Amino acid sequence: MLLMFIILSYDPTTLVYPPFGHTMGYHSATPFEVRLLLGSRLSFISPYGISAVKLKSEDIPGIDDDDELTVYCCNTGCHQIVYNKSLLDVGIYGKFGRGVGEFWSPTGIAASPDGWVWVADAGNHRVVKLLNTGDILLWVQSIGSFGCAELEFDSPYDVACDFENNIYVTDEGNGRVQIIDSSGSLVRMIDGLYRPKGIAVIAGGSPWNYRGNDFVVVLCEDGIKKFSMDGKLLGERRGEDFGLERYRFAFCMIDYYGHIWVTDRENGCIHKFDKDLKYITSFGRRGSRDKEFMDPRGITIWRRFGQVFVVDATVIDYYWIGIDGYIKGCFPPIFSSDKPGTDIVFFITEPAIMDAKIYDSKGEMVREFLNNYEETPFEHYLIWDGRSNRGEVVPPGDYKIEFVLTPTYSSKDKFKKILDTQVMVE
Q1: Cα separation, 238 vs 153, whole angstroms
Q2: What is the rounded CA–CA span in Å between residue 13 and residue 290?
Q3: Which residue from 213, 290, 293, 364 has the fewest beta carbons nearer than 10 Å?
Q4: CATH of 325-425, one of 3.20.20.70, 2.40.30.10, 3.20.170.30, 2.60.40.4070
């Protein structure tokens, strides 16, 4: 009975499922759904990297479809790239091999609104550049071969791109990141890394960049590292720093606020940090139910609307960034009329629009603190002096403190998080 209660009560909301009207009820691309839609034409075998983008060629002024994205995924075990041409049409590009139009265990992928697609073709020790014409993917060029010199690779794992179409490639076997411009020339390297894997970048001039953040995040086997755009180490975190004994970081992404999201294959979850690598929260747990992960790998975020896609073993999950939190308590939880007041301590996981109200035992509001107040993640304090909106000390009784949290992304019109607790006045 207790186990059933735990299962039913589990519902984290840092990420939420999109509403039915947006997805017709589908928030996961499972093997069953793929077979139902495409028959035997496609099988997901060990998918890894994923990238989502709004193509400029499909961004037509006056048409309300800005949240309809093109999503690319490395179907690694089949040596191919899978992408959606429309809601019900899927494109497949590539096969096993070493030549043009062929891949060998591609792991990472990045895409730009201009239609460019870059693939970390790990088994072939190269990066492949493709072009989405709006209908099909075309091979443009390959960069690199096996080796340790400039523009050579040893099992490139992941690739990220900035708004100028520079690419950032984790060269896992050589322990470095190579930054390459749009013409295929080397810009710089970040070396001395221990088996770098996932990479994400946010550049100062990028659209949908709240504070003009400008940095690179690299996941290595010895932790998460943040670099300036010119390769200076700005900070690093190991799993042990936030309570993990074991971890296996895989892929990462940076959202509109500069928050950093990291998939953890060992613990079956996604960790979230602020732009300074301060730990905020973790989303998900090991399992196969809703909001659980068996083996989370690639992650991508379309920053404008907070749309999130996560690759999990043989499934691709689709979320919107929501909001979660909890009230730690009231200190003191009981106060008297001659010594009125309490400190309310709460924690939230996302920037939020917040309303805070206090109700008496009859459900009537006696005090309104905040109305459409913008709050940031982490722990906060709210002091109630024990008085009503009229400035009078409230009479003895039980009072409910209620916070209503509204996300700042697309989910704001569809989802609110309500936190509440009780305080007693003697």
Answers
A1: 26
A2: 11
A3: 364
A4: 2.60.40.4070
Q: What residues form DSSP beta bridges with 374?
A: 353
- The string of pLDDT tens digits covering residues 193-240 is 999 999 999 999 898 999 999 999 999 999 999 999 999 999 999 999
Superfamily of domain 10-321: TolB, C-terminal domain (2.120.10.30)
Structure tokens at 148: 């340790």
| Backbone CA torsion sign across 284, 289, 290, 294 | positive
Q: Which pair of structure tokens corresponds to residue 35?
A: 């077979």
**What's the rounded Cα separation, in Å, for the pair 319 and 18?**
6
Amino acid at 181: D
Q: Which residues contact 151 (CB under 8 A, 6 or more apart)?
A: 143, 144, 178, 180, 184, 186
The whole model's pTM is what? 0.94
Q: In sequence order, which residues have a C-beta less than 8 Å from that of residue 374 and are 6 or more positions away?
A: 351, 352, 353, 354, 408
DSSP single-letter state for residue 339:
B
- pLDDT of residue 4 exceeding 60, the answer is no
Report the C-alpha gap between 192 and 175 in whole angstroms: 6
Is the CB of residue 320 less than 8 Å from the CB of residue 283?
no
Question: What percentage of the chain carries pLDDT values higher than 70?
Answer: 91
CA–CA gap between residue 258 and residue 303 (Å, rounded): 10
Q: How far is CA 108 from the centre of its chain?
A: 16
Residue with tokens 């709460």, as numbered in its chain: 346
**Strand, helix or coil for residue 260:** strand
Listed in order, the ranges of the chain carrying CATH 2.60.40.4070 are 325-425
Peptide linkage before 332 cis (omega within 30 of 0)? yes
Report the pLDDT value the prediction gives residue 5, as an integer from 0 to 100. 40
